[in-house]
Amino acid sequence: MTDRVLDPAVPTLLDLTGDLVTLTRALCDLPSESGQETALADAIEAALGEHPHLEVLRDGDTVVARTRLGAGSRVIVAGHIDTVPAADNLPTRVVGEGSRAEIWGRGTVDMKGGVAVQLALAAALVAPTRDVTWVFYDHEEVDASLSGLGRVARDHPDWLAGEFAILCEPTAGGIEGGCNGTLRAEVRVPGVAAHSARSWTGVNAIHGAAEVLRRLAAYEPASVEVDGLVYREGLNAVTIRGGVATNVVPGSCTVTVNYRFAPSSSLAQAEAHVREVFDGYEVVVVDGAAGARPGLDDPTAAAFAAAVLEVTGGVPAPKYGWTDVARFSELGIPAVNFGPGDPLLAHKADERCPVGDLSACYDALRAWLTA
Predict the structure, then answer these.
(1) Which carries the bigger pLDDT value, residue 300 or residue 221?
(2) For the CA atoms of 45, 51, 54, 57, what is the dihedral angle to 10 degrees?
(3) 33 catalytic per annotation
(4) Beta strands in 55-155 (DSSP E)
(5) Cα Rg for the chain, rounded, in angstroms?
(6) Is the pLDDT of residue 79 over 90?
(7) CA distances from 120 to 66, 238, 345, 360 (A)
(8) For residue 339, what pLDDT is reported?
């Protein structure tokens, strides 16, 4: 299979009835970093519009397709179409052969492999045993306030009506319940600016950040059991900035930290914990989203997990990263994570998804939706 370079000025035609490898590569090779999803959303909308059993709706760069069978129950299957920036890992390439082959490239794991499974099933399942709403949304990899799924929940809540939701986030074909919460905060270190030739007249704010970094290095994250699943927490510096010129002692420095916390804690509790860790410093929370409890005690979620794991193997596990199961939880809809690809490879330069994962997830989800 040869690599392809796509011209973003030419509309992309997605074949939803072909093989999953070709579809996954087409989705990945069309650039769609957060904020640049329009071309991909156009292609998805056009492809879904070719299938008359689907009602296709759109809000911004979020595309929704749903059946209208009157089946008596409805499930939502959702996935985001944006990626983090590429790391010289596009266009995609295939390594290996057969079911052991892997698709390498940005988005293969997070989460165009899952989106490919969604699209192929949306086209193929003309008469599932329950109504299905397929959601393809923008702006997941950036601030929660920009989320296309959040926008639809606010502006078109009826589009997200359902009894159960599945996020096709990468789980290597397993079931991951709930998700950690996430909080991003700026720890601001004050100083006094001065000419570097007369540094004794100032206070170096970057030097002052050493104590912030020391506290982070000494921090011991907790592992918290919630409804039978153990969630690992984490508190890390993710950016640091300070200084205005190479001959000026910096008068300020900001360390941005990201706290991933177990779903047993509220966003307010997470904020209080971060403020406690950095007591004595100005802490400004810039973004945050609460987690979601596993939800596997819901009868539909439990039945889905049992049916899927019978096909793919494994046992339910926690989702360490934040996903939109939390948003569905806020809407009162039980939700789980289920999709192809190893989540440990998400956002990595060597991101890659096994072809076997694609087919296994497709088969398991199809079996459940048609049982």
Answers:
(1) 221
(2) 20
(3) no
(4) 55-59, 62-66, 74-80, 93-95, 102-104, 131-137
(5) 22
(6) yes
(7) 14, 37, 23, 13
(8) 96
CA 339/CA 359 separation, integer angstroms: 11
| Average pLDDT score over residue span 266-290 | 96
Q: What value, to the nearest 5°, has the Cα angle with vertex 366 and ends 365 and 367?
A: 90
β-strand partners of 256:
186, 239
pLDDT at residue 140 in the model: 95
pLDDT class of 5 with cuts at 50, 70, 90: very low
N residues, the chain: 371
Any idea which residue has 């490919």 for tokens? 116
Place of tokens 């403020």: 275
CA-to-CA distance for 109 and 342, rounded, in angstroms?
A: 7
Which residue, chain included where needed, has tokens 């035609």? 13
Q: How confident is the model at residue 12 (pLDDT cuts 50, 70, 90)?
A: low
Per annotation, catalytic residue among 45, 102, 140, 233: 140
The DSSP bridge partners found for residue 78 are 135, 167
The span from the CA of 216 to the CA of 202, in Å, is 26
Catalytic entry in 29, 82, 102, 357:
82
Residue 284 — φ and ψ, nearest 5°?
-120, 115
pLDDT in tens, 30-74: 989 999 999 999 999 999 999 999 999 999 999 999 999 999 999
Q: Indicate the helix (H) or strand (E) that contains 241.
A: strand 234-242
Judge whether 61 counts as a catalytic residue: no
Give first-to-last CA distance, the chain, whole Å: 35
| CA 124 and chain centroid, separation | 25
- Work out whether strand 335-337 and strand 176-177 pair parallel, antiparallel, or are unpaired: antiparallel
